[in-house]
Design goal:
This protein is α/β, with parallel strands linked by helices. It folds into two domains: 174 residues, 3-Layer(aba) Sandwich (Rossmann fold); 209 residues, 3-Layer(aba) Sandwich (Rossmann fold), CATH 3.40.50.10300. The protein is 34% helix and 24% strand. It is built from 14 helices and 19 strands. The strands form five sheets. Strands 12-11-8-13-16-17-18-19 form an eight-stranded mixed sheet, sandwiched between helices. Strands 2-1-3-4-5 form a five-stranded parallel sheet, with helices on both faces. Strands 6-7 form a two-stranded antiparallel sheet. Helix 1 packs parallel to helix 2, helix 1 crosses helix 9 and helix 10 packs across helix 14. The longest helix is centred in the C-terminal third of the chain and has 18 residues. It is globular.
């Protein structure tokens, strides 16, 4: 059985070079079993032909609000009621502005106003247009009304510039559609997750850090999102793409990560501390690069705050999950960490040598909680994350 069997998706295509990717999106949604119908704006027709999208969807493409064949029966209302989800891909800056203002001057904006189903947009535009305060204000307005924003990605653009504004790839959008229409076990649950390392500056060019790649945390963010959760990710410096549908905040130091977490944790139901946060930071940071003049150099360190313990000690804490990366006795240390910090679960793993963990695509975990534990054998971090989410769901439901 395909994952979108029986689902009805209305894809709206607006004017922009990314419209060529809409054809692949329609194909992928249909491959997953969805019934797809397409509405194009007039500008979209300058970039891709209706015939292409009709051939891929199997249905005539609607373009005009004043189509006598359909509007005699209020076709735009019927179409808005027909869909289980409306996805605008690409969503141009112009379309976002008109949607934010509640305009209904063409078929696509009209049916968006008439809808009673979820609406998602996949923005695509020049990086400067995306960064413009007007676009960001329109985005905030749309999100405040419950409209999902998927993307954009960052990278090279058709105009030759580089930056955020690329439409999220069709494969990623398809996964988000599946997650949005699937009643996952964490549907409606808000999760705050930390991932990656922190860097504690010594001087403007050097820092104290660790070997965390962030791969486990990002895999976990993706698995939580696929389980239906509303995921916010606070990430240290990594070279990883943000999982589709995940809101990301980038930080560098432990103090910055603590601040970001405390600002967002009051709204979350589950907190997962997967980041490898530096335990210590230099007490003093040199304003200029330290020159190689001495045979020995002493750097005094001071302890960083314990973010996980601080969250667990809140008056009304979320369900808390910690990680313990150890070079020996992982289960023993994990149990101590769980008890000392009063967290609900701890996932422990061995790191270093051939044990997996840092800078690798595979890992193994032993997860402990009050009265139980379970070993998750060595596997790809993506699959491991899914199995860990299953355990988190079980324990979260038992505690609520």
């Amino acid at each position: 059985m395909s994952r979108l069997d029986g689902k009805r998706i209305l894809v709206g295509v607006t004017g922009g070079i990314a419209a060529y990717k809409s054809a692949e999106l329609v194909r992928l949604l249909g491959k997953q079993g969805a019934e797809v119908r397409v509405v194009m704006t007039a500008a979209a027709g300058e970039f891709i032909t209706p015939m292409t999208l009709q051939a891929l969807s199997g249905y005539p493409v609607r373009q005009s609000l004043f189509d006598q064949a359909h509007e005699a029966a209020m076709g735009h209302i019927e179409l808005a009621r027909w869909a289980d989800l409306i996805l605008i891909a690409p969503a141009s800056a112009d379309f976002m502005a008109r949607l934010a203002q509640g305009m209904a001057d063409d078929l696509l904006t009209t049916l968006c106003l008439a809808r009673t189903v979820p609406l998602a947009i996949a923005p695509a535009m020049n990086q400067a247009m995306w960064a413009n305060p007007a676009t960001q204000a329109n985005l905030a307005t749309l999100q405040s009304r419950g409209i999902d924003c998927w993307g954009p990605d960052a990278g090279s653009q058709a105009c030759g510039e580089v930056g955020p504004g690329r439409m999220l790839e069709p494969e990623a959008q398809t996964e988000l559609v599946i997650a949005r229409l699937s009643a996952g076990p964490l549907q409606g649950v808000k999760v705050l997750l930390t991932a990656g390392p922190t860097r504690e500056p010594i001087d403007p060019v050097r820092y104290v850090g660790n070997r965390s790649s962030g791969k486990m945390g990002f895999s976990l963010a993706r698995a939580l999102r696929e389980a239906g959760a509303d995921v916010s990710l606070v990430s240290g410096p990594v070279s990883l793409a943000t999982p589709a549908g995940v809101k990301r905040t980038d930080v560098e130091t432990a103090l910055q990560m603590r601040q970001a977490v405390l600002e967002q944790v009051v709204e979350c139901d589950i907190f997962v501390a997967c980041a490898a946060v530096a335990d210590y930071r230099p007490r003093e940071v040199a304003g200029q690069k330290i020159k190689k003049q001495q045979e020995q150099l002493e750097i005094r360190l001071e302890r960083n705050p314990d973010i996980l313990a601080e969250v667990a000690a809140l008056e009304s804490p979320p369900f808390t999950v910690g990680f313990a990366a150890e070079t020996d006795k992982p289960i023993e240390y994990a149990q101590q960490k769980r008890k000392n910090k009063r967290v609900n679960m701890v996932a422990a793993n061995l790191v270093g040598a051939e044990q997996g963990g840092f800078e690798r695509d595979e890992n193994a975990l032993t997860v402990v909680w009050e009265g139980g534990q379970q070993a998750l054998p060595m596997s790809d971090k993506g699959e491991l994350a899914k199995r860990l989410v299953e355990l988190i769901v079980e324990q979260y439901e038992q505690n609520n």
